[in-house]
């Protein structure tokens, strides 16, 4: 999409007129009737023809509580109607706050996302020009919002990509290309280096696949001072069969999305670099394919890890915590970041607990928890706290190794997974784990099957912007 700023409405063009519920007084300049069949309810649209035969879209913004999801209203309107748009479409922005304007642009840009990448006959795509009508200078908001939404669309493409194309090496190449384009550093550790450096848990998870594992290390360090403000770690399982503890086949195809955490980390580092935020950030993606093979790791195996702790494997389907364990130990040892956040589609348990509405958040750091909760509400990418009580440690006891990867009991699964990760944070005082299994990928009005949501990019980028720079 192309966004421009103009100062006046051109009554010949199609125009989107956002309206708050019950506040329709300003419509008279755009439409010829007094009482349109419309009251501004959230995400409702009434299309009327204006005096010059142009289309006038009345777009309901709803009430104050709906302000955080204004992007959805714009996205839906544009997605449903863009096929009719030829000339520029104007958007009246006078009544939008700055945050709402940003969301409006994000929504419009997100409507450009095409899920049918692999169709031999693609739907006709065309870039639409949106003229944002404003008498203030909104150039900075336009550029920032567009960068955010383009990044979201890029990471959705990754999460929706099929696992036969999206191998760990493919993710590494994606990161290298992104680093070149957006000017940050990227190092991909391939199998040999992983072995040499002791990423034993990543190697164990990946050993059953013909597609070798990688660890991707991205660094954006614009400050003079070399201290790392924030380190991000993402689970990058490009396909999760469950391994020998094999998953049932129903919905197994959706396990291509088990790299949703990795996608957020890759997207955030790219976006922070594009926006040139003054913050030193390192992103680590631990990526492997959890496959079934004669060479796969087994339940009952004892494996080593980057930290030196040994792990008894109870269930090979609890693989995400293993690759993250190495990612966390590595980022903390190699970079000593002031804050660490990991993101992972880690457990079915968090979906049982919080559904598709919020990510599970685990931390002992009140400041980070409050910061992420606030940004979560503002971006409508919500998080909700779950406990890390010491009582759960007993579930990770192993008779033969330092710890085991699963309690064997179908209770508190998201919490015991988080407790497992905590054991690899070396007591870091500012660590947060986000279990995004329920929010990263799911039902959508824009596809018939489940698809990527783009969750996390705004949450983490805005958190970094507000809370990690100093
Ligand atoms: N990738 C899954 C978690 C998941 C489930 C993500 C549903 C998205 C949607 C993870 O690796 C997994 O299999 N977790 C198991 C752990 C169990 C075996 C201890 C789970 O949560 O069932
Ligand atoms: Zn699994
Ligand atoms: Zn998994």
Please give a structural write-up.
With 470 residues, this protein is α/β, with parallel strands linked by helices. The chain folds into 2 domains: 134 residues, 3-Layer(aba) Sandwich (Leucine Aminopeptidase, subunit E, domain 1), CATH 3.40.220.10; 318 residues, 3-Layer(aba) Sandwich (Aminopeptidase), CATH 3.40.630. The chain is 32% helix and 20% strand. The protein contains 12 helices and 19 strands. Strand 3 and strand 4 form a beta hairpin. Helix 2 packs parallel to helix 3, helix 6 packs antiparallel against helix 8 and helix 10 crosses helix 12. The longest helix has 22 residues. It is elongated and about 80 Å long. The mean pLDDT is 97. One zinc ion binds next to loops. The site of one zinc ion has 5 residues, from strand 9.
Determine the mean pLDDT: 97
Small molecules bound: ligand BES, zinc ion
The CATH C-level class name of the largest domain: Alpha Beta
Radius of gyration: 23 Å
Q: Helicity, in percent? A: 25-40%
Helix and strand arrangement:
Layout: E1 2-6, E2 14-20, E3 45-49, E4 55-62, H1 70-81, E5 89-92, H2 98-110, E6 129-133, H3 139-160, H4 168-182, E7 185-189, H5 191-197, H6 200-206, E8 214-220, E9 230-240, H7 260-274, E10 281-290, E11 302-303, E12 311-312, H8 320-335, E13 339-344, H9 348-354, E14 359-363, H10 366-379, E15 383-385, E16 403-404, H11 413-422, E17 431-435, E18 441-442, E19 451-452, H12 457-467
Parallel strand pairs: 1-6, 2-4, 2-5, 5-6, 9-10, 9-13, 12-16, 13-17, 14-15
Antiparallel strand pairs: 3-4, 7-8, 8-10, 11-12, 14-17, 18-19
The structure holds ligand BES and zinc ion (2 copies).
């Amino acid at each position: 999409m192309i966004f421009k700023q103009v100062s006046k409405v051109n009554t010949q063009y199609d125009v989107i007129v956002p309206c708050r519920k019950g506040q329709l007084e300003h419509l008279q300049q755009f439409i010829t009737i007094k009482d349109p069949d419309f009251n501004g309810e959230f995400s409702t649209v009434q299309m009327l023809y204006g005096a010059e035969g142009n289309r006038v879209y009345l777009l309901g913004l709803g009430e104050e509580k709906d302000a955080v999801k204004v992007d959805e209203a714009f996205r839906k309107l544009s997605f449903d109607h863009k096929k009719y748009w030829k000339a520029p479409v104007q958007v009246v922005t006078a009544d939008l706050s700055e945050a709402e304007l940003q969301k409006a642009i994000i929504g419009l840009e997100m409507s450009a996302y095409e899920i049918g990448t692999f169709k031999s006959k693609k739907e006709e795509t065309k870039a639409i020009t949106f003229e944002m009508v404003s008498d203030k200078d909104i150039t900075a908001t336009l550029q920032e919002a567009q960068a955010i939404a383009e990044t979201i669309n890029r990471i959705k493409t990754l999460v929706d990509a099929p696992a036969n194309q999206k191998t760990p090496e493919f993710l590494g190449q994606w990161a290298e290309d992104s680093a070149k384009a957006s000017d940050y550093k990227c190092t991909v550790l391939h199998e040999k280096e992983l072995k040499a450096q002791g990423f034993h848990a990543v190697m164990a998870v990946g050993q059953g696949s013909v597609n070798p594992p990688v660890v991707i290390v991205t660094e954006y360090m614009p400050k003079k001072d070399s201290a790392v403000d924030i380190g991000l770690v993402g689970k990058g399982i490009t396909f999760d069969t469950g391994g020998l503890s094999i998953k049932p086949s129903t919905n197994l195809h959706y396990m291509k999305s088990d790299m949703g955490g990795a996608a957020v980390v890759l997207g955030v580092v790219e976006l922070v670099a594009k926006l040139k935020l003054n913050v030193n950030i390192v992103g680590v993606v631990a990526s492997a394919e959890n496959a079934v093979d004669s060479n796969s790791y087994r339940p009952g195996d004892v494996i080593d890890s980057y930290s030196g702790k040994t792990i008894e494997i109870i269930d090979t389907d609890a693989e995400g915590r293993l690759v993250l364990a190495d990612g966390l130990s590595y980022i903390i040892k190699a970079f000593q970041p002031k804050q660490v956040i990991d993101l992972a589609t880690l457990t079915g348990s968090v979906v049982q607990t919080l559904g598709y509405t919020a990510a599970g958040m685990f931390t002992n750091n009140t400041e980070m928890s409050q910061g992420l909760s606030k940004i979560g509400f503002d971006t409508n990418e919500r998080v909700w706290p779950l406990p890390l009580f010491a009582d759960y440690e007993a579930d990770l006891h192993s008779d033969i190794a330092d710890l085991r990867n699963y309690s064997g009991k179908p209770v508190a699964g998201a919490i015991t997974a988080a407790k497992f990760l905590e054991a690899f944070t070396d007591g870091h005082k500012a660590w947060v784990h986000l279990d995004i299994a329920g929010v990263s990928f799911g039902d959508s009005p824009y596809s018939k099957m489940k698809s990527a949501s783009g969750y996390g990019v705004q949450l983490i980028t805005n958190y970094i912007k507000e809370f990690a720079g100093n």
